[in-house]
Amino acid sequence: MARKETAADAANPGRLKQIALTYKMTRRADKKIGLVLAAVGIVTFGVFLAIGFLIGHPIYLGILGLLLALLATAIVFGRRAERAAFGQMEGQPGAAAAVLDNIGRGWTTTPAVAMNRNQDVVHRAVGKAGIVLIAEGNPNRVKSLLAAEKKRMNRIVADVPVHDLIVGTGEGQVELKKLRTTMLKLPRVLTGPQVTATNDRLRALGDLMSNMPLPKGPMPKGMKLPKGSGPRGR
């Protein structure tokens, strides 16, 4: 029992520290975050307290208002923190892969199935919507990467629908913050067993990282991509 209490006590400072770090990160991109959170909390609490006085139950409505004020503040903080995080990640190599890691259940993601020397990269996700190729990098260059990857996959999964998305802020591109939502809105056309079968067939293709002759242990400084690690199928 003592061990459980110790673990719980140790977890609380960790959570508080994480919240504090998240707030500092958010404040760097959102200078008004403190005023916004204070306003949300005060207004929510004030409305319920006022209703409490009107109906003759200020204590009950005050307690309820306090709880809902904390909840509303937490929701607003979470959304603005997420927006700030996406803003800092936008345009950074590998940002899409970080989003795909948190897309949720039902999807199997494989980062960097194709890459070129300019660090344009294509990631792959498989779910009930079929196969989704997510490209990040120069819009003109990634089109050839996407075409090469589709051609490579077509040999073994020609019967599975393939969607391609380019992450960016230009016309016809998907903003990083909308990537997860866009993928979840794709129509579901595969059953669970079909998704499993598709993953098994794609696994036979391997991916860029598993096929690269990298040594075990830390990456040596100054190591470059070997020849032949450019776009697939070109």
TrEMBL record:
* Chain spans, region Disordered: 210-234
Q: Name one Pfam family in it.
A: DUF4191
Coiled coil as a keyword? no
**Does the UniProt entry include the keyword Ribosomal protein?**
no
Q: Where is the chain membrane-spanning?
A: 33-53, 59-78
Q: Which domain of life is it from?
A: Bacteria
Q: Which UniProt keywords apply?
A: Membrane, Transmembrane, Transmembrane helix
Cross-referenced InterPro entries, in alphabetical order?
DUF4191 (IPR025445)
Q: What segments bear the compositional bias annotation Low complexity?
A: 219-234
Where does the secretion signal sit in this chain?
none
Q: What is this protein called?
A: DUF4191 domain-containing protein
The record lists the organism as: Streptomyces griseoloalbus
